[in-house]
């Protein structure tokens, strides 16, 4: 089964001597109850960047411009016991946007210090790819989950770093 194309955008801001990232508590759908990145499915006819701009607006009310997006790479998620959950996820970061994040029907946004991410409240795989993505690495990894659809079986890099 093909992996669903999805996208995530991590808004980054400086706060004193630290950097913060905007994440959100998922209220509905896939991942309900977990802290997740802002983003979602790419609709037919949309580019990855168009989709993430739309998703950030829908989930937080914040306006992001495509030209301000930085490529953070790709993470492919494989769920062997639930192949319909497989995702091919394009990652972006940005330090420019307009507006203040606001709660939506889907997400309760919250700023977190990148050095103290709430990994215990996120999908377990986030520990493997989120810190390097927020540190500026451009990822190309495949995460395979175990049969429980929660714990990580493996993380591989199918191609050399870009």
Describe this structure in words.
This protein has 162 residues and is mainly beta. It is built from two helices and nine strands. It has helices at 48-60, 126-134; strands at 4-15, 18-26, 35-36, 38-41, 70-78, 87-94, 107-113, 139-145, 152-156. Strands 1, 2, 3, 4, 5, 6, 7, 8 and 9 form a nine-stranded mixed beta sheet that branches. Strand 1 (4-15) and strand 2 form a beta hairpin. The protein is globular and about 40 Å long. The model has no long low-confidence stretch (mean pLDDT 94).
Brief summary of the model shown:
This protein is mainly β. Strands 1, 2, 3, 4, 5, 6, 7, 8 and 9 form a nine-stranded mixed beta sheet that branches.
SSE order, as H and E? EEEEHEEEHEE
Count of alpha and pi helical runs: 2
CATH hierarchy, class:
Alpha Beta
Rounded radius of gyration (Å): 15 Å
Low-confidence stretches: none
First-to-last CA distance: 27 Å
When the domains are counted, the total is 1
Q: Give the number of DSSP strands.
A: 9
The amount of helix comes to 10-25%
Shape summary? globular
Q: Which class of secondary structure composition applies to the elements?
A: mainly beta
Report the sheet-strand fraction. 35-45%
CATH topology: Nucleoside Triphosphate Pyrophosphohydrolase
Quickly give the CATH architecture.
Answer: Alpha-Beta Complex
> What is the CATH homologous superfamily assignment?
Nucleoside Triphosphate Pyrophosphohydrolase
Instruction: Name the average pLDDT.
Output: 94
How would you classify the quaternary structure?
A: single chain
Largest sheet: 9 strands, mixed
